[in-house]
Amino acid sequence: MLQTAPSRAGPPPAHAPDAGAPILSIQRLGKSYDKDKRVLDGIDLDIRRGEIFALLGPNGAGKTTLISIVCGIVNPGEGRVLVDGHDIVRDYRAARSVIGLVPQELTTDAFETVWATVSYSRGLFGHPPDPAHIERILRQLTLWDKRDAKIMTLSGGMKRRVLIAKALSHEPRLLFLDEPTAGVDVKLRQEMWQVVRELRESGVTVILTTHYIEEAEEMADRVGVINGGKLLLVEEKAALMQKLGRKELVLTLQEPARAVPAALEPYDLALSDDGFELRYTYNTRAEETDIARLLEAVAGAGLRLRDVTTRQSSLEDIFVDLVGERA
């Protein structure tokens, strides 16, 4: 796990960025690879300093293209991107010095040692050697005992930690994690989540893309949903689930019902195959949910209840609804 350590200031920036300004500002960003393939379409997004932001979207939605443009891997088509106040085109060196990127693919130097590859990554950004900083990163990511091991001998989870170490070697203030826990087991995934939280606590802003909805639900402060190159929604996670979420009321019967009684048809109830459960779905935004009247109607229909439970819709439910509605 990450250990608390005194922060280290990198090289002084060429300007003094406004502490209240977003660390990343994307303005009307667009990208097309040909006339018929619009990959990004007018993306506007501000990322706050010190937050964990989760970008969700299906395959081909534009997530990787968006990250690649910000990180200088792909040229933007139109629009403007500022990283800590630096334009990624006009002031690309300063912009890239702020960014750390952990790619989805496990691309590491197989025959290098952990220490050598992380130290080399720091040098690529023009930073002088700093063994104390490299040691601190490796200890934070529980890689210290593997510092002399060759990359090829490590497990997939350890290789992913090496990628994070490489991305942190030059002391970035903005870290991109592209599918950070893809291909790792549940236990290691939980450990990685804790690493990300502690990175945020140390002052690093984290943007992650993920296919694991529970990853965003567990960690993110805000959530963005992208599909077809358009940013459909950006919202505080808790507010998003409150505004767009649904609840399901499950009525468990003492005796099975063959069909939904006619008196209950206005409530659009779903009857389980075994006849023991009636399910009522309602919108949390509605001022009235008719639950009290429903329970009275159930009793009036002669149905005896054994149990009543509720289930809150998950972020995955909301994501599927959003993408489905705006596909």
From TrEMBL:
- Where is the segment annotated Disordered? 1-20
Q: Which domain of life is it from?
A: Bacteria
Sorted alphabetically, which keywords does the UniProt record give?
ATP-binding, Nucleotide-binding, Transport
Q: Give the matching InterPro entries.
A: AAA+_ATPase (IPR003593), ABC_transporter-like_ATP-bd (IPR003439), ABC_transporter-like_CS (IPR017871), ABC_transporter_ATP-binding (IPR050763), P-loop_NTPase (IPR027417)
Q: What GO MF terms are annotated?
A: ATP binding; ATP hydrolysis activity
Q: Identify one Pfam family in the record.
A: ABC_tran
Q: Does the keyword ATP-binding apply?
A: yes
Q: Which residues form the ABC transporter domain?
A: 24-253
- PANTHER family in alphabetical order: ABC TRANSPORTER ATP-BINDING PROTEIN (PTHR42711)
Report the sequence similarity comment from the record. Answer: Belongs to the ABC transporter superfamily.
Protein name, entry field: ABC-2 type transport system ATP-binding protein
Species, as recorded: Aureimonas jatrophae
